[in-house]
Design brief:
Length: 457
């Protein structure tokens, strides 16, 4: 490390040696979908890991060897806790023991679509009051370009220690995809950005202990922007096929066949599926970038329009279903069964789930709504608490319409088709299947014709 003074060199060498020899104590602030897998991966590698979370239920679960994250087996957590490699607490008293500290806290949006970085600020200030010379701090939470420089660094330097000289700071965005088995945690490349070479090299060294490929970039803002690009890319392309699905509905064209046909091109095209968008990143990150852009008198109209298109999909689907049901029932309330309420197939993750919004819209319009989801026993929608209905011949036959909102693998769709009356398939889960039920798929060109037949338009 050329150009380091003797104090810097000693601190960097001490931390680097501790990381290489697995003598470094790893701290993880925030033990959710990002933090717990990271903590477990380091503990599996033989590092002492101290996890901090203000949620006492999470801390209690880890202490008793239980995992609340689907991708992290309880057996593994229990083993690491018993070996003394993984400890959890609900306060910051142990910060001084940590050599490397990862910040893995939530970064939601406010109700007005403004970035909410309160959790990052709180974590940084808690660190600041306990910071010691030689520590490496790495932010992993997704946020707008400039967060590490503008929020985390000033908070740390309020301790009197200087970043790049006394302590070290980097940004290494998470790339967690809940439910995905391949590539594994270790196989997913990790970006590392820092505003000084010492911090960058230390962070790269620390992360190389749990991943096969570390990709250094020149600054924290480059890494922050790259993370947003990854997620905005998905959001924009999903918005494109969502608009195409709406157009195909009007034109009587099956959008799913269109996408399959286009996907045969071996270059220059990547298939995306229409539907409702949810999860921890895709519905949030476009607003982080659009908000930050306004600081530079720049308006991300393209990105904001895409976000609005995707946010409108639950409204569109609710409208389609209600119009399909209009006039079919006299003197009674229609009954709708929603299949799948998590934001993604085969995961128990409700964060920003659009199915929840869909159910809320239907309830507001006086429809009787039930749901079935093998991953979610109870669901709170507004002021109502719903309980998952067992999927059976009786529950299917009693529903006037069944909406497939999330296409979980282990759901008997054939039972649904054989016993249902009307199925609105948002995810194309019933492609290639047949039964007695009338099936309308999002964007298959049939809903407009079916609505016209019902209403006589």
């Amino acid at each position: 490390m050329i150009g380091l003074n003797s104090r810097q060199n000693l601190k960097v060498t001490r931390v680097a040696d501790a990381i290489r020899t697995r003598q470094a104590t790893i701290g993880v602030i925030g033990l959710g979908y990002v933090g717990l897998p990271l903590a477990v991966e380091y503990a599996r590698g033989g590092y002492q890991v101290l996890g901090i979370d203000v949620d006492v239920d999470k801390v209690s679960a880890i202490k008793t060897g239980k995992s609340y994250i689907q991708d992290v087996p309880s057996e593994l957590v229990s083993s690491l806790v018993q070996q003394g490699l993984l400890r959890a607490m609900d306060d910051f008293a142990t910060v001084g023991e940590m050599d490397v500290v990862f910040i893995c806290v939530p970064t939601p949006c406010t109700r007005s679509k403004q970035p909410d970085t309160a959790y990052i600020s709180q974590a940084a200030h808690e660190l600041s009051s306990r910071l010691r010379s030689g520590q490496l701090v790495v932010l992993r939470s997704t946020s707008y370009p400039g967060t590490t420089r503008e929020i985390v660094r000033p908070a740390l330097e309020a301790s009197g220690l200087r970043v790049g000289e006394d302590v070290f700071l980097a940004f290494a965005p998470e790339r967690v995809d809940p439910g995905r088995k391949s590539p594994s945690f270790r196989e997913v490349p990790v970006l590392v950005g820092a505003d000084d070479s010492e911090s960058r090299e230390l962070a790269a060294l620390a992360l190389s202990a749990v991943t096969d490929q570390v990709v250094p970039v020149s600054s924290t803002t480059v890494a922050e922007m790259a993370k947003l690009l990854e997620n905005v890319f998905r959001n924009v392309n999903i918005a494109l096929v969502n608009q195409l699905a709406l157009l195909c509905d009007r034109m009587g064209i099956d959008v799913w066949e269109v996408i399959r046909a286009a996907a045969t091109k071996p270059y220059g095209f990547m298939p995306f599926s229409p539907g409702m968008v949810g999860g921890h990143c895709i519905p949030v990150d476009p607003y982080y970038l659009a908000w930050k852009a306004k600081e530079y008198d720049f308006h991300m109209d393209f990105i904001e329009i895409a976000a609005r298109i995707n946010e409108d999909m639950p409204y569109y689907i609710a409208e389609r279903v209600l119009l399909l049901l209009n006039g079919r029932f006299q003197g009674r309330v229609p009954r709708i069964l929603v299949l799948g309420v998590t934001f993604k197939r085969d995961v128990a993750d409700l964060r920003y789930s659009p199915a929840t919004k869909l159910i809320e819209l239907l309830l507001q319009r006086g429809v009787w709504v039930e749901y079935h989801d093998p991953f979610v026993d109870t669901l709170v929608v507004g002021t109502q608490r719903l309980t998952s209905t067992p999927l059976s011949v009786e529950s299917v036959r009693s529903a006037d319409c069944i909406i497939i909102a999330t296409d979980h693998t282990h759901v008997d769709y054939q039972l649904v088709l054989d016993n249902g009356t009307l199925v609105f398939d948002v995810r194309n889960a019933t492609h290639g299947m047949a039964g007695r039920a009338e099936v309308i798929r999002l964007g298959d060109g049939r809903s407009w014709r079916a609505i016209s037949n019902v209403t006589g338009a």
